[in-house]
Fold each of these.
Amino acid sequence: MKKSCLTLILLALAATFSIAAETHGDKEVKEDIAKHRAMAVAHEAAAKCLESGMKEAVCLAELQVACKGIAIGKFCGLKHQH
């Protein structure tokens, strides 16, 4: 499961970078990379929060704070089907 998830993340990042490279200059691409890394850290913290047994609402609130200014939407890209 972890390998397939990692593969999907890497594929999404590769697609993002290929699109970004066509529409952005080097400075913008570097900024996008930094934002993706910051979002990845925020998502890892959210996963650890959920693993610790905290309520989803608490973990989501922490994620929103961590993603403020770097992601679009209140779920920082974490909204998915349950």
Note: The chain has a mean pLDDT of 78.
Amino acid sequence: MKIEKNSQGGTTTIRFIGHFQAEHLGELKKQLEDDGPRLVLDLTEVTLVDVEVVRFLGAREAEGVKIVHCPRYIREWMARERTS
């Protein structure tokens, strides 16, 4: 897992690359604490996630964090987690 961070015009974009699993959530939470309210999570290069990550992403999206370039299987999984 690799995390790249870019801040521009009051918006911070965090891009994830590779396998994104529960063991990476601690680092992500630290990144989120350091940033302001305008946050974007870019999942363009995410290849694999686990259920804890899906739940985390769903919760952040519900809080207003924008998730872009989300692979279809992750988006569908997030929707199933919301309804269960």
Note: The radius of gyration is 12 Å.
Amino acid sequence: MSIGANIRRLRSEHNLSQKELAQIAGVTDKAVSTWETGKKDPRMGAIEKIASHFGIRKSAIIEDTPHLSFTVSPSERAHIEKYRAISDEHREAVDVQLDFFYKKDTENFVKKESPSSGQGEADAG
């Protein structure tokens, strides 16, 4: 997909008008229209604003990919904004907690999904 197609898809996925996306990017709705039709490519500053707003990498907009890497929900976006606003020390604490819960939940998921988990251990020996 072209940059314009990626931008159009991202805008559509979030049910935004060209005018609303233009406000996010700091440009006019006519500029968004020229991007989406492939007449012009956006400047890097606009791409950075769009990527930051949606919590995606700039490459998800720029690269010729069949789809964007991912999108975030409004609550996830709020978490990202809060995370970016706190000190580095507090980010480290959040990272530790997140890693802890992620490992705990993924380990529990693997145990639940594994057909052999817990079986045969009591019988051995």
Note: Residues 3-62 form a domain with the 434 Repressor (Amino-terminal Domain) fold (CATH 1.10.260.40).
Amino acid sequence: MTTIFDRLARNRPAEPKIEQPYENHPQRLLDWLLQHWTNPTICIRDIRAYAPRPVRDEEIAISSAETLVRHGWLSELKAHRHDRRVWRIDRKPIIHPTIPAE
């Protein structure tokens, strides 16, 4: 037995699939660091606890931070523990910095 909704949908064209834009996680992390993070250093634990949700995954957080190191926005510091990663934030006087998508 068909419902009224099935009969109405029979003549309707298929809905186009909406593609999600590519997520540039390093850019999102950089924007958050420059706008919200006031400390001069940040560690992976802070990123996973306080950063925007898409960046909180451990692999994404580390790869985003390494991308920011390559572009000169972070400098890796020697941590007092072997399993800890710490970076110094190198703030620059740029209005809207952009990181190219990789």
Note: Helices lie at 4-9, 25-36, 44-50, 58-70.
